[in-house]
Automatic annotation (TrEMBL):
<dbReference type="InterPro" id="IPR044298">
    <property type="entry name" value="MIG/MutY"/>
</dbReference>
<keyword id="KW-0539">Nucleus</keyword>
<keyword id="KW-0411">Iron-sulfur</keyword>
<dbReference type="InterPro" id="IPR015797">
    <property type="entry name" value="NUDIX_hydrolase-like_dom_sf"/>
</dbReference>
<dbReference type="InterPro" id="IPR023170">
    <property type="entry name" value="HhH_base_excis_C"/>
</dbReference>
<keyword id="KW-0234">DNA repair</keyword>
<keyword id="KW-0378">Hydrolase</keyword>
<dbReference type="Pfam" id="PF00730">
    <property type="entry name" value="HhH-GPD"/>
</dbReference>
<protein>
    <recommendedName>
        <fullName>Adenine DNA glycosylase</fullName>
        <ecNumber>3.2.2.31</ecNumber>
    </recommendedName>
</protein>
<dbReference type="InterPro" id="IPR004036">
    <property type="entry name" value="Endonuclease-III-like_CS2"/>
</dbReference>
<dbReference type="InterPro" id="IPR011257">
    <property type="entry name" value="DNA_glycosylase"/>
</dbReference>
<keyword id="KW-0496">Mitochondrion</keyword>
<dbReference type="GO" id="GO:0035485">
    <property type="term" value="F:adenine/guanine mispair binding"/>
</dbReference>
<dbReference type="GO" id="GO:0006284">
    <property type="term" value="P:base-excision repair"/>
</dbReference>
<dbReference type="GO" id="GO:0046872">
    <property type="term" value="F:metal ion binding"/>
</dbReference>
<dbReference type="InterPro" id="IPR003265">
    <property type="entry name" value="HhH-GPD_domain"/>
</dbReference>
<feature type="domain" description="HhH-GPD">
    <location>
        <begin position="60"/>
        <end position="212"/>
    </location>
</feature>
Amino acid sequence: APAPPPARHLFSDPAEVEALRGNLLAWYDRCKRDLPWRALAATELDADRRGYAVWVSEIMLQQTQVATVIDYYNRWMQKWPTLQALAQASLEEVNELWAGLGYYSRGKRLQEAARKVVSELAGRMPRTAEDLQRLLPGVGRYTAGAIASISYGQATGVVDGNVIRVLCRLRCIGANSSSPAVIDWLWDMANVLVDRSRPGDFNQALMELGATVCVPKAPLCGECPVKQHCQAWRRKLFGKSPPVPDIEDCGVGDCPLCPPATEPWDSSLGVTNFPRKAAKKPPRAMRMATCVLERRGCHGAPEYLIVQRPSSGLLAGLWEFPSLPLAQDLQEGKEREELADHLQAWTGHPVAAKGLRFIGEVIHIFSHIHQTHVVYSLHLDGDVTLDPALSPSRWVTEDEFHASAVSTAMKKV
């Protein structure tokens, strides 16, 4: 087994740990944000409803900012206030409410897990992080720890992006913070630090600190309630690592948590030297031909054809305008021909490539895909019967389109 990191990277002093807990919790009590899931979890007496309220918030907050989540969360809890209500909903309803929040598989897995709790667990939420992760699809290590500590008082730590940043700065951890070995050490630290009497509040305080004070750029160190415990802050003040007995054990290439020798401390960055991550792969480019097919509806208002995406993969189950992927180096004339052939399969009528009107391009960026929609429009005269053997499709008005489960990219189109 690899040698453990030197003590200066760990929280090995019980007195320091106790002081850090007290300072952080006192700050949280004074400064925490007023968020709807916190209010609901604090007032809800039924343990399962409390767990459900926290669970929904944690799933929505994955990869999504708090400001964006609040409205979605309030509408979700108003529509499905209990696990039982969510279990009875359709996936179409879930997708419609989730539309625009991104990472759509989260909503699908949340509903699948709710149905499992109702049908297989007698409607009772698992109470420990271990059982939550083992029994509920879509619940990983972090989400399980958050639900168990906040809802059920289990003294277990949590590690998310905010906690990683705070811990790496507190202990000058400069190794790649996304590597499995470093993540394991951070989980060990979080479990050492968590307050045994207020685990849920402590975990929320640690995350709140990372979200509002110990931010990625321009952190507010002067307002930090635990700066006296922060080695990165002390190093910024004194220009070197703090003098601790085992300082010579670090920085010589064999410490699993020190920065690599090729990436020394940059004094101009201060505490933002930490954390360090491996360089991200650039998103892959993808081009899509997308056509807005329009017809005159029975009441005179224009209607547009939308089709449903497959039940798995990117944007699973969402509705979109007919689209197909394009080769990166395809000429415009060939793009039109391929799109015309694709549309002919939908409409059952010949579609002339020259009849497609070019509208423009829409760019939408996912975390791993840089997607360009080459947008065309086509007006259809008369009634069009769609092939029922193809993917589900329907004609919608503009209002119906915006009420459907469509992605942000399609709204841009």
